[in-house]
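Researcher: Quick one. two chains, 843 residues in total.
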Amino acid sequence: MKKNSNALGISNLKKFILKPEFSIVIMLVIMLVIAAVLQKNFFEIKSVVRNINAYAPLILLTMGQAVVIISGGLDLSAGTSLSLLTCVLATVMKRNDPVTGIYAILITFAVAVFIGVINGIGIGYLRIPPVIASFATSFIWLGVALFLRPTPGGESVGWFKSFYNISDVAGVPVFLKTFGTFVPPALILVICGCIVWFIMSKTRTGRYIYAVGSNSDSAYMSGINTAKAQMVACIINAFFIFLAALFFVGQNQSGDARLGDPLTLRAIAAAVVGGIALSGGRGSVYFALIGALILSLVSKIIFFANIPNAYQTLVSGVIVIIAIAGSMIYTFYSKRTLLKGEKKIT
Amino acid sequence: MIVLEAKGIKKRFGGVIAVSDGNLKCQAGKITGLLGANGSGKSTISKIICGVHSADAGEIIFNGRTVRYKNPHEARQDGIAMVFQNLSLVADLTVWQNIVLGIEENKGFFLNNKTAKDLSKEIVDKLLPGLDINKKIFDLNSGEMQIVEIAKALSARPKLLILDEPTAALEQTQVKSLFNYMRTLVETGIAIIFTSHRLWEAMEICDDVVIFRNGESVVSIDFDKECKDPEKIVNYITGEVEKIRVDKNHTKITDETVLSIEDLNYGEFLKDVSFKLKKGEILGIGGLAGQGQRELMLALAGNYAGVRCDAELNGKKIKLNKPSNVIRNGILLVPGDKQLEGLFLKHSVFINMIFPKLGLSRQPVFTPNKKYRKESKNIIDLLSIKTQNIDVPVSTLSGGNQQKVVVGKWLPFDTNIWLLADPAKGIDIGAKMELYQYIVNQVKEKNISVILYASDNEELIEHCDRLLIMYEGQIVATLEGDNINDDVITATSLRVR
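Model:
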């Protein structure tokens, strides 16, 4: 170490490298490189579009989950509420009446907000531990979804496909068709989600979500309505789930009550990989997005690495654990290095 | 002009009466000191005034109006801000975000971060120039946190500011600049309520003091009319006319070395620390706050696995790699941060008392509860811990009494060495004297040795046979005999000499 190294001596680059987030970016780069090596046409537009379509639902769910976790909660009902929303969409729409698509979107949006409010009341106002509260509501959403669609099915208007692939929709102008081959709607949905969170994070509520998750007692003493902040976090989460539901119905043209459940825990794991602390208050929603990408790439790599079917799940589990442990060790060491640099300026 | 008047305040928590008759008057442009032992009700009445608790009976008149706040936010908007003893900061937000938390201003739809930063910078610069307002709270030390806490209270531009032991975490220089700032604040016409365990601080800064004892305000002294008489104030606080004095130079220090530490290194925190501890000696560790004293105590107690050193206990090599190892060798730590290191807050006093026993000494298959309860009760009497009974959760005790439980749980052990890391932090004068009296007696009777770190130089001067001064993780001076006095300690701590 240099003689006069102190806080000012550390260059901005070094500071950036020592940030815990940096390890997540590195991990993403490594995953991308491995994937590109294993799959020759990884960076071709067709394949990129396909990958975005495949990853978008997990990304959306992870970002929503991240908001809830930052606020000090946890949403185990994310998957089943996704199922419920697809079922609502597919039930309200009538194939031959394009206007029903609009109704369906409005009604489903209202249901999403309702889901967020109910979860928010449980977690924020009634102070039920989030795991229990959302676990309980997950059965309600599943129950309603099964009531609406005991088996996968339902109807969808034609133009709803534009949430999956604009080119598939009949009677679309040529320039939109070309646009659709380059920019998948899934990407637009993700960007929509990012914009909504960007706006929220610049408001009072956005800051309060962090404050409540970090230390709800301190936040309360500062005059913050902690329950309201947690409820807003749940509603934002529900909005992300709503976006994912639009995508799924666009893709499948139907609703499925069993569709979302496997995604719940994957989204939580992805958020953790993306540096969201389960204790709340720490992490960034955008890095949660990267976490979801990493997790998705893991399955892709395993698929292309010719690992026997029987071991795929095992290997993916090991990779996830290594990824989380790696980022924790990195945080630990970078913090120590920073401390060494900054100590004793006085 | 009287800004605030509290009359006949009563408050009980469960079965414990925290305040039985609290009366208080604050004037604009004056600093009112609130003095009293731990659990005397001064914290509670502060919290009632600022809306954290609501009073069971009594009346609070603020600016000529009877008020009853439902939460701290209402009080803050009305012009009463309190700086909390257990910090109310959010660790994951930055300094300036914390300062404006709850009173953020909007610019259109978005938050107005620029005015928030300007305001924060303005306040922080007056209190602690050089503190980066973009740092996150978890990167600050406890003194800096306390400053931010005060800045936060000031950001709401209060008419009445309540400071609950603001100086406990501060260094002497920080205390000085805080006092200067408090003076400029009261000149603008606001009133300040100030509590502290350090008597000289109250004498220095306050215009009048109200003294609490057992939940009652016993007397109010106006320093303009009456002279500042520390003896009298101490008598009001403790309620006893006779003071217990700890006598020094009673211990027979033998030449026998109990513990010898050679070249103790731990990262950047401790560098080449070497010293020898003699049997029956009270060895002090002093210096400015945050120069590695805390780390040294924790390292000696085996809390840092990465410590490198040669340690010998009674001529036998020992390893300082884990706490259980060190404790088995009879080296016991009484940590300073009781809430983090010393206690299971949600468990009962009894469980906390016997816990070290259960883990560390040979036990019959069934725990002899009756015997242990009796022992625990003895310790509670010995240290006069104020608790309803031994089965209530430790968290219901006041801060000073919690600390006594931490000290108490080690007392029945056979010890070679006691490591006392600021054991009297937040304990009132009476209890502090009793505690040290007990320690000194133990040293005398059982011929054990003590390493004492205290943030208050007074305690070190009074008790230590030898004093090591630390600076930047190193021992820079060893003081002995008459050299152990305030001037020399301050000078060597600041490396003037």
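Chain B has 17 helices and 22 strands.
Researcher: Thanks, that's what I needed.
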